[in-house]
Predict the 3D structure of the following.
Amino acid sequence: QVQLVESGGGLVQAGGSLRLSCAASGRIFIIYRMGWYRQAPGKQRELVASITSGGNTNYADSVKGRFTISRDNAKNTVYLQMNSLKPEDTAVYYCNADHRASYDRNLVAYWGQGTQITVSS
């Protein structure tokens, strides 16, 4: 079992910055992709950014150039640096990790509990 604990959410004015962290713990064997998703009220959950264990990144078009995802494999931690925040970035942000318990086991997706980001105009 893998647990993901997020931190760093809160209230910020438009144009401001926040940094999210997500630490994985538990019986970790291999974590492949880690990412951040968000869900605004009345909307579907969407991918914000993801990063593989090798450092390959992927971003939603809406955050390119403003958000940066990074990862510390030794600490099983993923970060999301969010700059130039906009009111439309307001959402609950969820951490995600794709974990394999052994080489002959399937990938299992784990989720954090979510952290609220509110950007005021």
Remarks:
- The chain has a mean pLDDT of 96.
- The first strand starts at residue 2 and ends at 7.
- Residues 76 and 89 are 26 Å apart (CA to CA).
- The radius of gyration is 14 Å.
